[in-house]
Predict the structure.
Amino acid sequence: MTGLKHWQMGLCVVWAMALCLGCKNTPPPEPPEVSEAPSASAVASAEASDVSVTETSPVQSPRVYPKDLEFGGDLDIIVIQGRKALTLTNRTTRTYENIELWVNQRYAAHVGHIDIGTGTTVALESLINRYGESYPVPGFLRPDRSFPALLVEIVDLEQSKRFRLHVRSKP
């Protein structure tokens, strides 16, 4: 042994065992509670970046992705992800109201309506996961926080169906 005496080695073993056994009985941390209203930082950041925010709010309670709902097919709604918001262009003949928008089967927000032909904008920070964490948005000091929206779906609460949307890169 290089430099450690027997009593020092025994002390290290006892300390390591106490550390491991102490961690075993610690309960896992509980997820943070989700507030009912959109966070002030989400609204402030959207206003600061000239993003017109539609009536969006986090899902009322922490929810798990509704994979058991019937799949209704693909809709002709184009989704383009910007730096701070998603822009949805509805090319269908129907206005969608009272829906949940799901991104990557993890983050959700309640959207009041998606009108025909208009560019509905949803702030990325209004998307909340089941643990109450908002969607990662890049910032001045954290440009690496960018997270691509690969799968975007809406859940029509009236029909109890989920629909996949077309995601495109920014032109």
